[in-house]
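Why predict the complex rather than its parts? Because the way molecules touch one another can change local conformation, and only a joint prediction can capture that. The input here totals 316 residues.
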Amino acid sequence: ARPRVGYFYTGKTGAQLLTENLNKIFVRDYQSLPVVVNENISVYDAIVSVFLEDVGTLYVVDENSHLVGVLSRKDLLRASIGKQELSALPVNIIMTRMPNITYCEKDDMLIDVAKKLIDKQIDSLPVVKVTDQGLEVTGRITKTNITKAFVALVDGDL
Amino acid sequence: ARPRVGYFYTGKTGAQLLTENLNKIFVRDYQSLPVVVNENISVYDAIVSVFLEDVGTLYVVDENSHLVGVLSRKDLLRASIGKQELSALPVNIIMTRMPNITYCEKDDMLIDVAKKLIDKQIDSLPVVKVTDQGLEVTGRITKTNITKAFVALVDGDL
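Output of the joint prediction:
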């Protein structure tokens, strides 16, 4: 019999191939390191951390290192035009608290996280490990990470 | 002769099809409206604008409505932990000025803008119309717009 060589139609369109490729990109492949602060630090110190660490969002943890809040640049800016003294104002007064924090896990698909960022109009999600005691923060996913994945798609790195 | 029906190999891989599709996405398809402020307003008023308009970056224009600067949330946060009175500090003291502003035009490819955002580590680019008199700001492209394009790719909207 004649050997089967060359290309064969697989029944897939370009869009389907793309979707398949995107469904193979996970949070763990694009996540960044999280920047975590204690819930008792001041807003002033949190703003300094934003600059030192060059991040848009800080994750706030309790004394057991479990996630209790999120501080966005917007939260910090809002506090900075308030009347309070920033060095005397603890971050747990102004942070977004559980259960209002949207998070993800390292094995989630990146595309699902991208949809959450758009739907909820937020800048980043903490990547957590869920334990019986609480949420351990292990990473962060930002629109920068999504933009990097978009660029990598074109460069053929995916 | 037998009619040529069915699928034929086009010589293109999934990656090539993807690249072709991405090269058809332009800035004009995903840009947002720009938020523009005058160079003489105070840092305090600029921070208020960030909240009222819910944007990450403000574009600063001169009396002829030409682009002269960019104010990021980071610029505003940095000023807010300084010693100056925010309502007495004009934005043109703290803004990033031309020629240090990276911009794009509406007919640029979105993927090229995505690469610039990553390479230069910035949050957004103004979309401008280049004239003999200067740059007219007509839009903005943020990582949110790029993330929306990423989601649309998968939903087959592109």
